[in-house]
């Protein structure tokens, strides 16, 4: 797939959320101000790819008020094309984050199930036009969990993309506390994965979708990947990352993949002073897409893993690093020498 | 009514909102942090009365998450009894504020119509217990506009209060952009005012409820008040304030009232460097309730007006001043001499 | 000229500066942090017009480092087209501002004469392409004062614009502490005004350019305008604003113009609590351009003056208001009523 | 003792201090603002227990000014009963903290020896009433060191508690730079420990009080504990924690205890990115009291140690964590997985 | 006196205080951080004079801890000679300020009566050496009110200064809430004024010292001044300022003086958007001393009044303006034109 | 050399820079404010030595504007003599810093090559006077790289110092991205080292100057040092530090030296939670100079290494620690015990 989609845009579909968080590691009652960022798992991918120099476009709804205007301005600042963003009379989704540290976990409280994105409809997105010059369409398991109309809108997009032969990257994490509109999330995720080409996930996600019971060993991962490719023939490759959390402030990660024909993996990277854990998976996905466009599978996986590692050092939801910074980490330059 | 309710608690029923606002006069895209406060028109009244030294209790729902916990902590900090606050699995209502200045108006964007308070039900409030030792019950026109169940819960509270002979203060402002659940707001406000004893509002509010057309002159106010007392016999007195806005930063206010038998008014107070306009009406209501407990009608009106004026100098939604500070303003001490 | 250029983009040429300022009214030794904004007199015009909904493009150089990247991101956030921005190996220009208050004036210290824009060259701008679909080209007297190559680059742009029949707005303020490269600023400004169509300035600027001595009365202004139109026949109209500074915190402004055939003026607007004085002239220029596109001369002047007044309430260099907000001020809505 | 005191309140007696600290790791001359928190070793215990859901009451003096009002509001926010807090005409005690990092130690400067608490008198506390429905009374070695009248007030409280059979937790750390009123601190601490039931401390504290010379080994600790129980027969159990400080930012802790009949200890917990070291001992004490109420001795010790570890991740003096968070750490969930 | 003392240093004797204040107009419970400044009425005079370019020296005690070190660093930053500052084992005095606005007054809470300066002794100051090359010694009525030893130390300094023929400026404001060590403040102030040469104060201060009852008219002021010069023959001139406080945010001031032979006064200056009211009297005193050195009495009074007016626009306790800025205000440049 | 120069001042010559940096680990587009500090490699040495209690003087140019005034105030605050600082009409040099973390490196963008220091000339420094009572003159490789006139000014200073027998410490790091005025940096550095007495640097710096190729082993270092002493006979000793960067947040350092007759080294110190990496080399130099004055070579090296380690925990460019804190680290007190 190397370079094949270069110069084509990457389309990302999903909710844009405002994140609100007391500074430092404060608990909410200890704060009088909150930092805020605009994020959202799919938009984070678009933002990171824009910082990598790719053309990206976000398809979403925002609120028709001062918050929605600021969300659009934030996407423009990242360099994301906002021409397919609609403004509707529902508030923007948001979440509150109390940042953990060491052995204390971070906590999140969401306010998104009646927001502007939950009210998106297939009628409001012109998928034919949006996907006209696209090389990739990216989606995650969050979107179909928000509302039935969000699921339908996504499904329509995948169908159009499939017809156009566009690469579809699926990050189908299952979040049990979403999925409140009465459908079986596992079934829907399986349906949507069945329309996709790249699977970003591992044994856990495969077990959820296929209702299997593979273990987390290398062998388990290979077996699970093969089972997925059999069950969902459009899927070509499976890219996973393995996280070893020493504490909220100290994480180790490496990537592994089944390319359809062989197992590959990366070295483990270690982040001893985590700045921000949010969006690290999205950084992996963005790194992977960039890698698939520019490199072979092994280097794409290296790039995804190093991008994910770097995101732990970046505040906010999006991974604001350059391809050069990622490549330097791959090449082992992790000692913190100042760049003058 | 002087002193009759002293030592009895004041119960306030309504939504607690988080307010989020960029510091200074920033527009949202100019900010990376927001100040936040907990407010809500009825809770502001309770908070101000608690600062005046009264016993107050808030009846409300908050979210069952870190935001709801912080809202409860904020009420406790104000000194409000939170034993009748329920935690439910819906997000706390909130609003965003861009603070205007001079000839630029402030802007607000709400996120409240599917929040924890909108989901309050009559079953969740034990009005008999809550009102057992109460001297006042305070409500505003916001509450019945949020949702039908909020309206029903309020109505039940007013009935219990009426049976117990508790003074009921009504601040029935009509907000047209609420009232989305299909009922006629004017009708419902009239019904609820018909169960109350003190009317906090003026010609505008009376015209809305009675569908009359009184003018804003002194005479118009007196005629409107008389019409209201005729249409809603439980109402004993009408307390109004007149605002003259030179700009967002420069406001003039005075109070006027129909006591049932005579017209009274206060001197005009001028605030040339407004710090925060939000909650000034609630400060008036709190000042009025305090005044009705401790003073005669004229001094109660003076107290309400001076409390309202002082709120323009206090950040946040609630009026954090002492009775002594209000009385000093009434006595003309407005020159800004430092208190050491 | 009403509506003629609608839908065509407005091109702005000039330096993008970082502004650094201690918060509140602090002096620099009283601060440990500074607020920063990206501005620059011409870019401020582009930003304001982008907020008005117009297509705008900035032609400039920025530094090839993290500061230049942030400048580009800031322009993207405003909604300005940055495709004609070059990155060069010279630092971005910047200035420090200590914000005055009341009878204390603000102070500015510049660092711009060896920056990225001072090193712009005619070779680095493809004026033919940039101006291909433009309706307006905007320049100010700052640009030719920075460096000889900046002057040459501007001159070339004006020639191309003239050939294409594009409206050229000139804001030729003379700043004596610039102009350090050995040329007579007055001569150069006269040459460049002679290539322009709209003159934004008044008696002072005309006297500087024509070396005349008109007084500041209405009659003086009319006479000066006529003299300018005679000396520079390409100039069609003269738009001026008159400022009466009570103090750094209290300003009064009104606009006046010579339309080529008649004298018009606006009401005076008063800003009693100035938030930010910087960029108010640029807000006037942006309002004027918007007005010339959408309205007749009188309303264009009203719009320019009200936009200028509103800028006094906005932090930073650019005027982040909507056309609706400007129109409301023109219609007299200046009392600071909150917009919910 | 398991569950025996459940539902009874815990009374804490001691000074409430304002802590003032430059943000981040700044030295004071590098700062223009300071963060502030209200703390005090005994109040920290009450605050933590309130967060655990227990009823707590603080007995103390605060200043009769705006600072004392804020201290009361802070205690209310924590959920502490403030009905036994007196306001007196002496300033609130306070301390300044420069936060260390890595191999640089934190520094504290106190201003407390003439403050409102130093002026507390036995006459101002109604111990009979305060302790009427109490299950625990908590004190530390700071209180009798502040002033003779503070010592006398404490002693009277211990006598009343003893008569009522209330459990008395003693945290008798000796601080040599206090004790300026002319008494032998070791003697007084021994006297007060002799009136208590639970000893929170270890070999060091026992050696200070008994003027013995036990070593820090497990055997030394057991021997010291036995010696203490012999010298102070009211003491039933000894709970200690062992800290291994790699640096100001990296700490290891475990708990050990002599239950009167056996030696128990916990696993060691490691905090690699310390957020705030202050109040970790108080978090241990609060965890212990909670554990003694709800669990057996081993689990109480586990709870105390895990609560102490978690406090290292919380800003400010008080340990704002829930019992669920503590239990999760005991169960080994320390990898920093986000709670959504 | 014009120019006579030029190039000689001005010595200021008094307490250095840390001021702690929530930002904006927050009340303390609304804040989590406080701004801080180092001030103190006499040090403010030294700081302002240092900014005017004069050599100044502060004689004082500070705490022997991190706070005292920061106080010394602050004085060094102002440019004040700190070689006569002693470090003692008592905490630095401090005060808390809640900043008022409009009709709400500012509030101050002090913590100074057991601080490092209250413990100053005559033995710790080598007045002979300090005053060796001094032209002025400045004192205020705060110092003798703090403690008896502070009073004795001041008295000794005045005696030495008198012997050396140094000009002594007295600002003998009487603060009733100080003076807690058992002496009659009015008597002591009269004694000390009797050793001084320049009286900074007016009818109020003279009435307090002489126990007279002059009124506040021009005639009353002249009569009071004459009475003072008769009672205290060392006093040569009396310099007063008259404040008209519209509100905490809007102040008007003018100066008046009795030169020994004639009455003079200044124009009134108006500050409509007060930034900081603290230290405005000290700015007047510093301006006066500078004026007495460099100008005649009328211009000295003008300078004092304009310096005082400018201080209202400067955050913190000290007046950080240049002589040029003061002279511009005297010359009528108060319109807020930006200085580039 | 022990104690020989005690009580003599240390003169430092070089540029004072403003450092501007988004707080926390933010990227510039994520920030609206920046922290700022005054630094500069040579001034950092002076500041650290002033904090150690030494008399220090900075010879430099600053801008003749509000920024230059603030730079002077910052130096005064550190306690540095500023009487040889000139103000010139060129902007102060500055740099922007994005602070890295973990495996992400920090990034710096400079704006200094046309600043006030680049315009320094030999005529503007009175070296005879400045060096009259000096014990040390300190310079680094940055200064001769800025501009030819800066190089000439430095050279003249070294000549005067040499004549006076003053110890000259050279920190001749070669920065390739400076040196834009057309001279061979290696040649010039060799010339200037040839005039110095103490070499602060290691194999890398020696190889650059001598164009040799020694390796980094202990043996390589000794051989390189001997070669340097042969090539530059005025050099008496070589002091090096070895850094092992685990990541931007985790560093290990130790010192080694060739004393002219023997090899010495220190233990390795580890900083696991780096607060600020900038200026750590300058802290080493300052520690070394202090050590050379007060201790023997081994302890001087220990002191330099421990000072360097402590700087990693201090924000800003200068090492604000006391000699006591450094000695405690040398003695092994690195466990973070709070100093009360």
Automatic annotation (TrEMBL), chains A, B, C, D, E, F:
Query: What does the UniProt keyword field contain?
Result: Kinase, Transferase
Domain (Carbohydrate kinase PfkB): residue spans on this chain: 8-313
Keyword Transferase applies: yes
Mark the transmembrane ranges.
Answer: none
Q: Does the keyword Kinase apply?
A: yes
Q: Please indicate which superkingdom the organism of origin belongs to.
A: Bacteria
Gene Ontology molecular function: kinase activity
- Write down the SUPFAM superfamilies for this protein, in alphabetical order: Ribokinase-like
Read off the InterPro entries from this record.
Carb_kinase_PfkB-like, PfkB_dom, Ribokinase-like
Tell me which family the UniProt entry assigns to this protein.
Belongs to the carbohydrate kinase PfkB family.
Protein name (Swiss-Prot/TrEMBL):
Sugar kinase
Query: Species name for this entry?
Result: Zunongwangia pacifica
Q: What is the lineage of its organism?
A: Bacteria, Pseudomonadati, Bacteroidota, Flavobacteriia, Flavobacteriales
């Amino acid at each position: 797939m190397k370079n094949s989609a270069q110069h084509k845009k990457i389309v990302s579909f999903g909710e844009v959320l405002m994140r609100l968080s007391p500074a430092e590691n404060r608990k909410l009652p200890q704060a009088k101000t909150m930092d805020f960022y605009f994020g959202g798992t799919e938009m984070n991918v678009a933002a990171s790819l824009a910082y990598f120099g790719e053309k990206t476009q976000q398809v979403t709804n925002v609120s028709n008020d001062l918050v929605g205007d600021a969300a659009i301005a934030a996407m423009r600042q990242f360099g994301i094309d906002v021409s397919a963003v609609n403004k509707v009379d529902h508030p923007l989704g948001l979440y509150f984050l109390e940042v953990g540290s060491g052995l204390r976990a971070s906590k999140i409280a969401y306010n998104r199930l009646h927001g502007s994105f939950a009210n998106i409809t297939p009628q409001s997105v012109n998928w034919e036009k949006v996907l006209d010059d696209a090389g990739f369409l990216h989606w995650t398991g969050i979107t179909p969990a928000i509302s039935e109309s969000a699921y339908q809108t996504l499904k329509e997009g995948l169908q159009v993309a499939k017809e156009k032969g566009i690469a579809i990257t699926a990050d189908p994490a299952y979040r049990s506390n979403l999925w409140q509109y009465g459908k079986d999330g596992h079934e829907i995720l399986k349906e949507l994965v069945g329309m996709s080409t790249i699977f970003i996930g591992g044994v856990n996600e495969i077990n959820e979708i296929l209702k299997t019971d593979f273990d987390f060993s290398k062998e388990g991962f290979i077996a699970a990947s093969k089972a997925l490719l059999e069950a969902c023939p459009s899927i070509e490759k499976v890219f996973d990352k393995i996280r070893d959390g020493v504490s909220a402030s100290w994480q180790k990660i490496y990537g592994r993949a089944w390319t359809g024909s062989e197992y590959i993996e990366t070295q483990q990277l270690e982040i001893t002073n985590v700045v921000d854990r949010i969006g690290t998976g999205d950084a992996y996905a963005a790194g992977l897409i960039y890698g698939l466009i520019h490199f072979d599978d092994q280097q794409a996986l290296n790039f995804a893993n190093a991008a994910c590692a770097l995101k732990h050092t970046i505040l906010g939801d999006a991974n604001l690093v350059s391809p050069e910074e990622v490549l330097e980490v791959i090449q082992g330059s992790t000692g913190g020498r100042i760049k003058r």
